[in-house]
Amino acid sequence: MIQDSTPWKDELIAVADRLQKKTTQKRWTERSGFLVERDLMVSAYSLRKLIDNYKVSDALAQKQFALERFELIDPDEVPDLFGRYSVWEYYDLEDPVKTVMPLAKVCNQIVHSWLWMLSSKEEDGAFDGLYVSSDTARKKWLYRIPIDDYIAVCREIGEEYVYSKTMTYGPGGYTGYTQILGKKWSDYEFPE
After folding, report:
1. In the predicted model, is pLDDT for residue 163 greater than 90?
2. How far apart are CA 179 and CA 48, in angstroms?
3. In this predicted structure, what is the pLDDT of residue 156?
4. How many other CB atoms sit within 10 Å of the CB of residue 65?
5. Model confidence over 2-19: pLDDT tens digits?
6. All residues at 6 or more sequence positions from 124 whose CB lies less than 8 Å from its CB, including other chains
7. Which H or E run contains 133?
8. How far apart are CA 121 and CA 155, in angstroms?
9. For residue 56, what is the DSSP state?
10. Given its phi and psi angles, is residue 132 left (phi above 0), alpha (psi -120 to 50 degrees) or beta?
11. Which residues contact 165 (CB under 8 A, 6 or more apart)?
12. Domain positions in the chain
């Protein structure tokens, strides 16, 4: 349970800043890859946990995330432990399908990733996304998450202040939240 969301959201902003810098980085080392992997993994877990603990507005929690999906070429040839780093052999990377997925499910793809490979622009090699698929999704699809969109979501949730929560009570007591509202910290006017 997340009691105070502020440090978690502050870290999401820091992650967004670090990932943004990586999109223009020219020289990559093993450590560079690790730092990006760590930031993506921890931020995905943090985003999901904030959503699960009602620390994010309904509007952001229900956000549909645009990504690309790649079909498995042969349903009888699913990447195993030895094939997880050569996704191009298993998925049709030439024919991406544009799709949307709820943010929490995008986070699950990252947290439960079986396949994981950073993507880069063809023209200059700049980091621009993540190829990922969870242990169960790999049997059908590989996804590509655009890093600019992921950075924007981290920043948006990191900068959000939840100012209203509506709960319902039934005969057995508390039954759940029915509405959560939020806005950017900079747009919120505190009552005097």
Report:
1. no
2. 18
3. 96
4. 20
5. 889 999 999 999 999 999
6. none
7. strand 127-134
8. 23
9. S
10. beta
11. 54, 177, 179, 180, 181
12. 6-187
CA 184 to CA 164: how far, in whole Å? 13
Q: Are 64 and 102 in contact, with CB atoms under 8 Å apart?
A: yes
**Tokens matching residue 144:** 């590509």
CB atoms within 10 A of CB 8: 18
Q: Are 84 and 135 in contact (CB under 8 A)?
A: no
Q: List Cβ neighbours of 1 (8 Å cut-off, separation of 6 or more).
A: 53
What's the confidence (pLDDT) of residue 124?
86
DSSP state, 63? P
For residue range 30-89, list pLDDT tens digits in order.
Answer: 999 999 999 999 999 999 999 999 999 999 999 999 999 999 999 999 988 877 778 899
Q: How many CB atoms lie within 10 A of CB 95?
A: 9
Q: What is the pLDDT of residues 92-130, one digit of tens each?
A: 999 999 999 999 999 999 999 999 999 998 888 899 999
Residue with token string 């509405």: 179
Burial class of residue 180, CB neighbours in 10 A (0-12, 13-18, 19+): buried
